[in-house]
Amino acid sequence: MSLNLQTHTEHFTNPLYLESGRILEPYDIAYETYGTLNEDKSNVVVICHALTGSHHCAGVYEGENKPGWWDGLIGPNKAVDTNKFFVICTNVIGSCFGSTGPMSPKHPHHEPYRYKFPVVTIKDMVKAQRILFDKLDIHRVHAIIGGSMGGMQALLFAIHYPNFAQKIISLAATHATQPWAIAFNKVAQEAILKDPDFKEGYYEPELLKEHGLSGMAIGRMAGHISFLSHESMEKKFGRAYKKDDGLYELFGKFQVESYLEYNSYNFTKWFDPLSYLYITKAINIFDLSRGFDSLAEAMKKVQAQLHLISFKNDMLFKNFEMKEISDTLDTIGNKNHTYLDIESDYGHDAFLVELDKFDTYIKEVLHG
Prior knowledge:
Blueprint: E1 6-12, E2 16-17, E3 23-24, E4 27-34, E5 44-48, E6 74-75, E7 80-81, E8 86-90, H1 122-135, E9 141-147, H2 149-160, E10 165-171, H3 179-193, H4 205-211, H5 214-227, H6 230-236, H7 255-270, H8 273-284, H9 295-299, E11 305-311, H10 319-331, E12 337-342, H11 350-353, H12 359-367
Parallel strand pairs: 5-8, 5-9, 6-7, 9-10, 10-11, 11-12
Antiparallel strand pairs: 1-4, 2-3, 4-8
Helix pairs in contact: 1-2, 3-5, 3-8, 5-7
Protein backbone atom coordinates (compact mmCIF):
# COMPACT_ATOMS: atom_id res chain seq x y z
CA MET A 1 0.00 0.00 0.00
CA SER A 2 1.26 3.51 -0.68
CA LEU A 3 1.33 6.43 1.71
CA ASN A 4 -0.27 8.70 -0.92
CA LEU A 5 1.63 11.78 0.31
CA GLN A 6 0.28 15.04 -1.12
CA THR A 7 1.44 18.58 -0.35
CA HIS A 8 -0.89 21.57 -0.80
CA THR A 9 -1.12 25.27 0.01
CA GLU A 10 -4.47 26.94 0.56
CA HIS A 11 -4.85 30.70 0.16
CA PHE A 12 -7.34 32.66 2.30
CA THR A 13 -8.50 36.20 1.56
CA ASN A 14 -10.90 36.59 4.50
CA PRO A 15 -9.24 38.14 7.55
CA LEU A 16 -8.12 35.84 10.37
CA TYR A 17 -9.17 37.58 13.60
CA LEU A 18 -6.44 36.96 16.15
CA GLU A 19 -6.67 36.61 19.91
CA SER A 20 -4.68 39.86 20.28
CA GLY A 21 -7.40 41.82 18.45
CA ARG A 22 -5.25 42.19 15.34
CA ILE A 23 -6.00 40.60 11.99
CA LEU A 24 -4.02 38.67 9.45
CA GLU A 25 -5.03 38.96 5.80
CA PRO A 26 -4.53 37.43 3.36
CA TYR A 27 -2.80 34.28 4.58
CA ASP A 28 -1.66 30.87 3.35
CA ILE A 29 -1.66 27.49 5.04
CA ALA A 30 0.63 24.73 3.81
CA TYR A 31 -0.54 21.23 4.60
CA GLU A 32 0.11 17.61 3.76
CA THR A 33 -2.30 14.68 3.46
CA TYR A 34 -1.69 10.93 3.54
CA GLY A 35 -4.02 8.04 2.80
CA THR A 36 -7.47 8.39 1.23
CA LEU A 37 -10.56 10.21 2.46
CA ASN A 38 -13.50 7.80 2.72
CA GLU A 39 -16.96 8.53 1.40
CA ASP A 40 -18.56 9.86 4.58
CA LYS A 41 -15.31 11.63 5.65
CA SER A 42 -15.30 9.75 8.95
CA ASN A 43 -11.66 8.62 8.78
CA VAL A 44 -9.80 11.93 9.22
CA VAL A 45 -6.91 12.10 11.69
CA VAL A 46 -5.32 15.52 12.30
CA ILE A 47 -1.65 15.67 13.33
CA CYS A 48 -0.33 18.83 15.06
CA HIS A 49 3.39 19.64 14.94
CA ALA A 50 5.77 20.99 17.57
CA LEU A 51 7.89 24.18 17.60
CA THR A 52 10.31 23.39 14.76
CA GLY A 53 8.18 20.78 13.02
CA SER A 54 6.24 21.27 9.81
CA HIS A 55 3.38 19.81 7.83
CA HIS A 56 5.79 17.11 6.61
CA CYS A 57 5.19 14.51 9.32
CA ALA A 58 5.50 11.29 7.30
CA GLY A 59 7.03 9.84 4.17
CA VAL A 60 9.97 11.02 2.11
CA TYR A 61 10.04 13.69 -0.61
CA GLU A 62 11.34 12.68 -4.00
CA GLY A 63 15.10 13.02 -4.20
CA GLU A 64 15.45 13.27 -0.40
CA ASN A 65 16.17 10.66 2.22
CA LYS A 66 15.06 12.37 5.42
CA PRO A 67 11.56 11.18 6.36
CA GLY A 68 8.86 13.31 8.01
CA TRP A 69 9.27 13.93 11.74
CA TRP A 70 6.71 11.28 12.89
CA ASP A 71 7.29 8.82 10.07
CA GLY A 72 7.62 5.90 12.50
CA LEU A 73 4.06 6.50 13.68
CA ILE A 74 2.22 7.38 10.47
CA GLY A 75 1.93 5.23 7.34
CA PRO A 76 0.59 1.96 5.93
CA ASN A 77 0.14 -0.57 8.80
CA LYS A 78 1.69 1.80 11.37
CA ALA A 79 -0.11 3.08 14.49
CA VAL A 80 -1.79 5.85 12.50
CA ASP A 81 -2.57 3.53 9.60
CA THR A 82 -2.90 5.36 6.28
CA ASN A 83 -4.61 2.29 4.79
CA LYS A 84 -7.51 3.20 7.09
CA PHE A 85 -7.13 6.86 7.94
CA PHE A 86 -6.89 10.07 5.96
CA VAL A 87 -4.20 12.05 7.78
CA ILE A 88 -3.84 15.85 7.59
CA CYS A 89 -0.98 17.86 9.06
CA THR A 90 -0.82 21.63 8.59
CA ASN A 91 2.08 24.00 9.04
CA VAL A 92 1.11 26.48 11.77
CA ILE A 93 0.63 30.20 11.11
CA GLY A 94 3.89 31.96 12.09
CA SER A 95 6.12 29.12 10.94
CA CYS A 96 8.52 29.19 8.00
CA PHE A 97 7.56 26.19 5.87
CA GLY A 98 4.91 27.64 3.62
CA SER A 99 2.24 29.00 5.94
CA THR A 100 2.14 32.77 6.47
CA GLY A 101 4.78 33.92 8.94
CA PRO A 102 7.02 36.90 9.74
CA MET A 103 9.08 36.50 6.54
CA SER A 104 6.01 36.29 4.27
CA PRO A 105 5.31 39.30 2.03
CA LYS A 106 3.00 41.83 3.69
CA HIS A 107 0.05 42.60 1.41
CA PRO A 108 -0.15 44.72 -0.76
CA HIS A 109 3.66 45.16 -0.81
CA HIS A 110 6.27 42.55 -1.48
CA GLU A 111 8.40 43.34 1.54
CA PRO A 112 8.30 40.74 4.35
CA TYR A 113 6.36 41.54 7.54
CA ARG A 114 9.35 40.99 9.84
CA TYR A 115 8.38 42.73 13.12
CA LYS A 116 5.11 44.00 11.64
CA PHE A 117 3.83 40.44 11.85
CA PRO A 118 1.27 40.24 14.67
CA VAL A 119 1.90 38.03 17.70
CA VAL A 120 -0.02 34.82 17.09
CA THR A 121 -1.11 32.44 19.83
CA ILE A 122 -1.53 28.68 19.76
CA LYS A 123 -5.28 29.31 19.81
CA ASP A 124 -4.86 31.37 16.61
CA MET A 125 -2.94 28.49 15.00
CA VAL A 126 -5.80 26.14 15.85
CA LYS A 127 -8.43 28.59 14.59
CA ALA A 128 -6.62 28.89 11.23
CA GLN A 129 -6.55 25.09 10.94
CA ARG A 130 -10.26 24.91 11.70
CA ILE A 131 -10.94 27.43 8.90
CA LEU A 132 -8.84 25.31 6.53
CA PHE A 133 -10.80 22.16 7.43
CA ASP A 134 -14.07 24.01 6.79
CA LYS A 135 -12.78 24.98 3.37
CA LEU A 136 -11.91 21.32 2.72
CA ASP A 137 -15.48 20.48 3.78
CA ILE A 138 -14.26 18.51 6.82
CA HIS A 139 -16.45 19.41 9.79
CA ARG A 140 -15.77 16.53 12.14
CA VAL A 141 -12.70 14.34 12.52
CA HIS A 142 -12.01 10.94 14.00
CA ALA A 143 -8.98 12.09 16.01
CA ILE A 144 -6.41 14.81 16.67
CA ILE A 145 -2.91 13.87 17.83
CA GLY A 146 0.02 16.10 18.79
CA GLY A 147 3.09 16.22 21.01
CA SER A 148 4.69 19.20 22.80
CA MET A 149 3.38 22.36 21.07
CA GLY A 150 1.32 19.93 18.97
CA GLY A 151 -0.16 18.60 22.22
CA MET A 152 -1.04 22.17 23.21
CA GLN A 153 -2.92 22.57 19.93
CA ALA A 154 -4.76 19.28 20.50
CA LEU A 155 -5.88 20.47 23.96
CA LEU A 156 -7.12 23.79 22.56
CA PHE A 157 -9.13 21.94 19.90
CA ALA A 158 -10.74 19.99 22.77
CA ILE A 159 -11.82 23.16 24.58
CA HIS A 160 -12.62 25.62 21.79
CA TYR A 161 -14.03 23.22 19.17
CA PRO A 162 -15.60 20.63 21.50
CA ASN A 163 -17.61 18.80 18.82
CA PHE A 164 -14.93 18.74 16.16
CA ALA A 165 -13.01 15.59 17.13
CA GLN A 166 -14.20 12.30 18.50
CA LYS A 167 -10.83 11.49 20.11
CA ILE A 168 -7.93 13.69 21.11
CA ILE A 169 -4.46 12.50 22.12
CA SER A 170 -2.06 15.03 23.64
CA LEU A 171 1.51 13.98 24.43
CA ALA A 172 4.29 15.72 26.38
CA ALA A 173 2.39 18.99 26.80
CA THR A 174 1.16 21.16 29.68
CA HIS A 175 -1.92 23.22 30.59
CA ALA A 176 0.13 26.42 30.81
CA THR A 177 3.81 26.98 30.04
CA GLN A 178 5.81 27.14 33.28
CA PRO A 179 8.82 29.39 34.16
CA TRP A 180 11.36 26.60 33.50
CA ALA A 181 10.34 26.33 29.82
CA ILE A 182 10.01 30.12 29.47
CA ALA A 183 13.55 30.48 30.85
CA PHE A 184 15.02 28.18 28.18
CA ASN A 185 13.15 30.14 25.51
CA LYS A 186 14.58 33.35 26.95
CA VAL A 187 18.14 32.12 26.38
CA ALA A 188 17.29 31.37 22.74
CA GLN A 189 15.56 34.71 22.20
CA GLU A 190 18.42 36.73 23.70
CA ALA A 191 21.03 34.79 21.73
CA ILE A 192 19.18 35.54 18.47
CA LEU A 193 18.54 39.22 19.24
CA LYS A 194 22.12 39.93 20.26
CA ASP A 195 23.71 38.35 17.20
CA PRO A 196 24.93 41.19 14.91
CA ASP A 197 24.14 38.99 11.86
CA PHE A 198 20.47 39.02 12.91
CA LYS A 199 20.57 42.74 12.00
CA GLU A 200 17.67 43.55 14.35
CA GLY A 201 15.37 41.43 12.21
CA TYR A 202 16.50 42.88 8.87
CA TYR A 203 18.72 39.96 7.84
CA GLU A 204 18.85 38.46 4.34
CA PRO A 205 17.27 34.99 4.56
CA GLU A 206 19.47 33.70 1.73
CA LEU A 207 22.63 34.57 3.66
CA LEU A 208 21.38 32.69 6.72
CA LYS A 209 20.56 29.62 4.62
CA GLU A 210 24.17 29.67 3.54
CA HIS A 211 26.03 30.66 6.71
CA GLY A 212 23.57 30.03 9.54
CA LEU A 213 23.18 32.31 12.55
CA SER A 214 25.53 31.62 15.43
CA GLY A 215 23.34 33.33 18.05
CA MET A 216 20.42 31.13 17.13
CA ALA A 217 22.67 28.06 17.25
CA ILE A 218 23.63 28.93 20.84
CA GLY A 219 19.96 29.37 21.75
CA ARG A 220 19.16 26.06 20.11
CA MET A 221 21.80 24.35 22.24
CA ALA A 222 19.87 25.43 25.33
CA GLY A 223 16.74 24.04 23.71
CA HIS A 224 18.44 20.71 22.98
CA ILE A 225 19.50 20.39 26.60
CA SER A 226 15.90 20.90 27.74
CA PHE A 227 14.64 18.23 25.28
CA LEU A 228 16.93 15.55 26.71
CA SER A 229 17.61 14.44 30.27
CA HIS A 230 20.58 13.70 32.52
CA GLU A 231 20.08 9.97 31.89
CA SER A 232 19.63 10.12 28.12
CA MET A 233 22.77 12.24 27.71
CA GLU A 234 24.70 9.84 29.92
CA LYS A 235 23.50 6.92 27.80
CA LYS A 236 24.01 8.63 24.46
CA PHE A 237 27.42 10.25 25.06
CA GLY A 238 28.78 9.28 28.46
CA ARG A 239 32.15 11.00 28.89
CA ALA A 240 33.31 10.04 25.40
CA TYR A 241 35.84 12.47 24.02
CA LYS A 242 36.43 13.28 20.35
CA LYS A 243 38.99 10.84 19.00
CA ASP A 244 41.24 13.38 17.30
CA ASP A 245 41.12 15.98 20.12
CA GLY A 246 43.62 16.05 22.94
CA LEU A 247 42.29 16.08 26.51
CA TYR A 248 44.44 19.12 27.32
CA GLU A 249 43.60 21.13 24.22
CA LEU A 250 41.51 24.08 25.38
CA PHE A 251 38.98 23.55 22.58
CA GLY A 252 39.15 19.77 22.58
CA LYS A 253 35.60 18.44 22.74
CA PHE A 254 33.49 15.84 24.44
CA GLN A 255 31.06 14.02 22.14
CA VAL A 256 28.14 15.84 23.77
CA GLU A 257 29.70 19.22 22.85
CA SER A 258 30.29 18.11 19.32
CA TYR A 259 26.67 16.89 19.03
CA LEU A 260 25.26 20.20 20.29
CA GLU A 261 27.44 22.14 17.86
CA TYR A 262 26.64 20.02 14.84
CA ASN A 263 22.87 19.93 15.38
CA SER A 264 22.49 23.54 16.40
CA TYR A 265 24.54 25.16 13.65
CA ASN A 266 22.82 23.01 11.04
CA PHE A 267 19.42 23.93 12.43
CA THR A 268 19.98 27.65 11.76
CA LYS A 269 20.32 26.98 8.04
CA TRP A 270 16.79 25.63 7.71
CA PHE A 271 14.74 27.40 10.41
CA ASP A 272 13.95 31.10 10.30
CA PRO A 273 15.00 33.14 13.39
CA LEU A 274 11.97 35.46 13.36
CA SER A 275 9.67 32.43 13.20
CA TYR A 276 11.58 31.03 16.16
CA LEU A 277 10.94 34.24 18.14
CA TYR A 278 7.24 34.34 17.24
CA ILE A 279 6.57 30.66 17.95
CA THR A 280 8.44 30.62 21.27
CA LYS A 281 6.36 33.68 22.22
CA ALA A 282 3.19 31.70 21.39
CA ILE A 283 4.43 28.79 23.52
CA ASN A 284 5.34 31.09 26.43
CA ILE A 285 1.90 32.69 26.63
CA PHE A 286 0.03 29.40 26.14
CA ASP A 287 -2.54 28.88 28.90
CA LEU A 288 -5.61 26.64 28.56
CA SER A 289 -7.48 28.65 31.16
CA ARG A 290 -7.10 32.03 29.40
CA GLY A 291 -10.60 33.43 28.91
CA PHE A 292 -11.99 31.20 31.68
CA ASP A 293 -12.16 31.61 35.45
CA SER A 294 -10.03 28.52 36.01
CA LEU A 295 -8.60 25.42 34.37
CA ALA A 296 -11.64 23.50 35.66
CA GLU A 297 -14.01 25.92 33.88
CA ALA A 298 -12.04 25.48 30.66
CA MET A 299 -12.03 21.68 30.92
CA LYS A 300 -15.81 21.61 31.35
CA LYS A 301 -16.01 22.43 27.64
CA VAL A 302 -14.37 19.14 26.62
CA GLN A 303 -16.68 16.70 24.82
CA ALA A 304 -14.14 14.52 23.02
CA GLN A 305 -12.59 11.39 24.45
CA LEU A 306 -9.34 12.88 25.77
CA HIS A 307 -6.14 10.86 26.16
CA LEU A 308 -3.22 12.49 27.99
CA ILE A 309 0.30 11.06 27.77
CA SER A 310 3.32 12.28 29.73
CA PHE A 311 6.88 10.98 29.98
CA LYS A 312 8.52 10.29 33.34
CA ASN A 313 11.73 12.18 32.73
CA ASP A 314 10.46 15.09 30.64
CA MET A 315 12.41 18.10 31.94
CA LEU A 316 10.59 20.67 29.79
CA PHE A 317 6.96 19.86 30.59
CA LYS A 318 7.04 17.80 33.76
CA ASN A 319 4.79 14.75 33.88
CA PHE A 320 2.79 16.23 36.80
CA GLU A 321 1.74 19.12 34.52
CA MET A 322 -0.21 16.62 32.38
CA LYS A 323 -1.47 14.90 35.50
CA GLU A 324 -2.90 18.23 36.69
CA ILE A 325 -5.13 18.25 33.59
CA SER A 326 -6.24 14.70 34.33
CA ASP A 327 -6.88 15.51 38.02
CA THR A 328 -8.92 18.56 36.99
CA LEU A 329 -11.02 16.38 34.67
CA ASP A 330 -11.56 13.94 37.57
CA THR A 331 -12.61 16.80 39.84
CA ILE A 332 -15.28 18.02 37.43
CA GLY A 333 -16.53 14.46 36.91
CA ASN A 334 -15.29 13.92 33.35
CA LYS A 335 -15.26 10.13 32.87
CA ASN A 336 -14.24 10.25 29.22
CA HIS A 337 -10.47 10.64 29.60
CA THR A 338 -7.35 8.61 30.31
CA TYR A 339 -3.93 9.56 31.64
CA LEU A 340 -0.81 7.55 30.90
CA ASP A 341 2.63 8.34 32.32
CA ILE A 342 5.24 6.51 30.28
CA GLU A 343 8.36 5.03 31.86
CA SER A 344 11.12 6.88 30.06
CA ASP A 345 14.53 8.31 30.76
CA TYR A 346 14.83 9.96 27.38
CA GLY A 347 13.41 13.38 28.29
CA HIS A 348 10.96 15.61 26.41
CA ASP A 349 11.91 14.31 22.96
CA ALA A 350 10.72 10.81 23.91
CA PHE A 351 7.48 11.60 22.05
CA LEU A 352 9.55 11.79 18.82
CA VAL A 353 12.01 9.02 19.58
CA GLU A 354 10.58 6.26 21.79
CA LEU A 355 7.57 5.50 19.60
CA ASP A 356 7.56 1.84 20.59
CA LYS A 357 6.51 2.90 24.09
CA PHE A 358 3.19 4.36 22.95
CA ASP A 359 2.41 3.42 19.35
CA THR A 360 0.32 0.38 20.36
CA TYR A 361 -1.60 2.58 22.79
CA ILE A 362 -2.32 5.12 20.04
CA LYS A 363 -3.41 2.31 17.71
CA GLU A 364 -5.83 1.03 20.38
CA VAL A 365 -7.25 4.50 21.00
CA LEU A 366 -7.80 5.07 17.26
CA HIS A 367 -9.47 1.70 16.75
CA GLY A 368 -11.07 1.33 20.18
